Amino acid sequence: MKFTKMHGLGNCYIYVNCFEERVPDPPALARAVSDRNTGVGSDGLILICPSDKADARMEMYNIDGSRGQMCGNGIRCVAKYVYDHGISRNNPLRIETDAGVLTMQLTVADGKMQAARVDLGPPRLSPEDLPTTLSREQMLNYPITVLGRPAQLVCVSMGNPHVVVYGIPLELLTPAVLAEEGRELETSPLFPERTNVHFAEVLGPGEVNVLHWERGSGPTQACGTGVAAVCVAGVLTGRSGRSITAHLPGGDLQMEWNASDNHVYMTGPAVEIFSGEWPD
């Protein structure tokens, strides 16, 4: 089976062109290829499939084999593969996901996609959208304790569930601490289907630092829909503005929550690393 490894700001996945390849057991393949000791090493598996309503369809699987509805960095890489490999040369490009069909405006140079501006659609702000056992009122600035310190939790769905945590200095979140606190929130009874977790530190109205713990994958270098949730959470709680630059371990991501159409727009790069063959 042929595969390609790609990344968006260090958030890397293994991509399989299912226009040509067949994957009978995606969860098992995701677990195998994602292993950084015995596999290729990645944050999960993404299948690029035919679609009857868009240029292609994206199917995402986390490191543990669980299905993910969407990945902001992953969908930019899907767009790059679809465009660069000639599956579709449309621009804008439309990709079907479990969270709906998303449209991307591509930045192209020398026949290759360099970056994309992705319309992530409107945020979803009701308890059933995550889902969570919290009420709508509790979803904003819900008080929690992290590392013995008071913190606030904000819940946002971008087609997949996110919680944004404010009030914790990021220098305290060593890899071991991030793993402990991230896993605890991901699996909290407040979130019956688990959740993605993002620790945010506001530097100014248009600038934030963010560390990620992704549901089913753990710590990642970047999370596109997570930054979208941070952007929305910042506006809802008055911490930051509608356009932000998020500084992530993998680099910077631009995000805008547009007031006129209520959609969140993400702009960032996508990189193809290498291709190979996985034994059947």
In short:
The protein has 280 residues and is α+β, with helices and mostly antiparallel strands.
Structural notes for this entry:
The protein is of the alpha+beta class. The chain folds into two domains: 2-121 and 268-277, Diaminopimelate Epimerase, Chain A, domain 1; 127-262, Diaminopimelate Epimerase, Chain A, domain 1. It contains four helices and 18 strands. The protein has an 18-stranded mixed β-sheet that branches. Strand 16 and strand 17 (264-269) form a beta hairpin. The longest helix is centred in the N-terminal third of the chain and has 13 residues, at 72-84. The protein starts with a strand and ends with a strand. The relative contact order is 0.17.
The CATH class of the largest domain is Alpha Beta
Radius of gyration: 18 Å
Number of helical regions: 4
Instruction: Give the second-level CATH assignment, the architecture of the largest domain.
Output: Roll
**CATH topology name of the largest domain:** Diaminopimelate Epimerase, Chain A, domain 1
Q: In percent, how much strand structure appears in the residues? A: 35-45%
CATH superfamily of the largest domain: Diaminopimelate Epimerase, Chain A, domain 1
Order of helices and strands: EEHEEEHEEEEEEHEEEHEEEE
How does the overall form come out from the CA principal axes?
globular
Portion in helices: 10-25%
Biggest sheet statistics: 18 strands, mixed
Poorly predicted regions? none
Number of domains: 2
Number of strands: 18
Mean pLDDT: 97
Task: Indicate the structural class.
Answer: alpha+beta
Spatial separation of the terminal alpha carbons: 6 Å
